[in-house]
Each structure stands twice: as C-alpha cells, then as structure tokens.
Amino acid sequence: MENYFALQDSATDVKKEVVGGITTFLTMAYIIAVNANILGAEGVGMPPGAIVTATCLTAGLTTIFMGLYAKLPFALAPGMGLNAFFAFSVVLGMGISWHVALTAVFVEGIIFILLSLTNIREMVVNAIPTNLKYAVTAGIGLFISFIGFINAGIVIKSDATTVAMGNLISPTALIAVVGVLVIVILSKKNVKGAILWGILISSIIAWGYAIISPESALSYGISLPEGIFKYESLKPIAFKLDFSFLILKHKLCNL
After folding, report:
1. SS3 of 165, please?
2. Which of 64, 90, 116, 226 counts the highest number of beta carbons within 10 A?
3. What are the CA-CA distances from residue 55 to residues 50, 141, 166 (Å)?
4. Beta-ladder partners of 165
5. From the CB of residue 145, how many other CB atoms can be counted at a distance below 10 Å?
6. φ, ψ for residue 189 (rounded to 5)?
7. CA nearest neighbour of 36 among 246, 230, 198, 197
C-alpha cells in the first residue's frame, strides 16, 4: 500500500491514513441523516430510506474510486447547499416535482462530466482567485459548524435578529460543548485523532444519557442505535427521471 499510494512522498504511513480516514468518515457522516431529512421533508416527497441508501452508496463508491484511481485522500459525498436548494427552492418554492428536479440534476451531472473530461473545468478552477478558494473552504466549514450548532440547540431561529442564542444548558448543547472542548484541548496538546476522540466521547455521553433517562433523551432527539445494519431499497427513486418538461419546452419552441 505504501508503494502504490506513494505514502513516503507525503510523509505519512498506513496507520495515519487509516486514522485520518475514520476521522473524516465520522465528521462527514452527518450528511447521511441530513440529506434524507431535507429531501424527505414534507412537500418534497422523496422516500428518506431510499435517500439514505443512495447517499451511502454514492459517497462510498466515489470515495473508493478517488482513492484507488486518483490516489488522493479525498472523501466525496453529497454537498450541503445544493440539496437544500433542490428541496426548498426548486421543489417547494417553484412547485416543481422532485422527478423533474432530479432530471435537471442528472443533466447537470452529464455536463459536469463532459467539462471534467476536457480542459474547460481546469481552466475555470484556475481562473478562480486563490483568496476566493480559501474563502470558499472557510465558508463551507462555517456552514457545517452552523448546522451543528442548530442541531445542538446552541443557535435558534429569531424573528428579530434571524438567529439567537439557544438554551446552553440543554443536554444536546452541553454534549456538543463537551465534544468541542475535547477536540480543542487535545488539538492544542497535539494529540493525534483529536476530532475522532471528541466525537467518540460526546457519543458515549449521549448514549449514556439515553440509557439513564430514555424518555427525556428521546425528547431531545437522543436515542440508542436500534441496530447495526439496515438496507432500504433504491427502487422508489432509482431512474425516476421525468423528461416531460424538456419535451414540452421543445414543442412550445417549435410552435
């Protein structure tokens, strides 16, 4: 593995990469639940179970392909932002069915692949200023952090100021704060896997709370895992594309 991935050139080894991979997985696994909640929201209509399966498969297969083919330690998964735009702006806001919206994403994906096979995509990426690239990276990190603060109840909606401070002594907020503090302290002490330890410790605290007071924990959305493995069929969403909009538009143009 060290020879195939040329780990020596990057001053790393298999152990570091495994720990880094596990940490990356745990920090991005939130998208599995969040993607299903957004696309399965009331009014959107996509089956949450099938969305979970599709999210896991696409993230897993593309990440494996990125590692084996490109030999880069990049994890890929559906991004936050586009799914919210898909559900709330296109489907709910414009009244377009998710079948038609999914077709638009399919066409967009084909166009993106064609651009990637040529030098056009590379030219576009190189044309973006370096400071803007750094800003986008920081912005994505802040966006994900903001989602975490909302889910933990640290940040809540406010009609007066848009956002406001939530209940910091609630179980979810306290568990989140403990996890962040563990990560910060271990990072300052240069402990390897600081993020991983923070996630594990906060998860253990949450599960302990669910064992001691299951009803109270459930009211805050905290519960013990009901199982390890579960599979939902992709059939409800697989190939459910609707090209009728394109056909109708073509007919109208001919008229």
Report:
1. strand
2. 90
3. 9, 20, 30
4. 155
5. 12
6. -90, 10
7. 230
Q: What gap in Å lies between CA 45 and CA 242, rounded to an integer?
A: 15
Whether the predicted model's global pTM rises above the 0.70 cut: yes
The answer to whether the CB of 38 falls within 8 A of the CB of 25 is no
Segment 118-141 mean pLDDT: 86
Q: Within the chain, how many helices (H) and strands (E) appear?
A: 12, 2
Distance CA 80, CA 83 (A): 6
pLDDT in tens, 138-164: 887 887 788 788 888 899 988 888 889
pLDDT of residue 248: 61
CA 22 from chain center: how many Å?
Answer: 15
Nearest 5 degrees, angle CA 198-CA 170-CA 31?
50
Question: Is a pLDDT exceeding 90 seen at residue 226?
Answer: no
Q: How many Å separate Cα 11 from the centre of its chain?
A: 29
Residues contacting 106, CB < 8 A, separation 6+: 241
Distance CA 208, CA 171 (A): 12
The single residue listed with the structure tokens 């040329």 is 6
Q: According to the model, what pLDDT value does residue 254 have?
A: 55
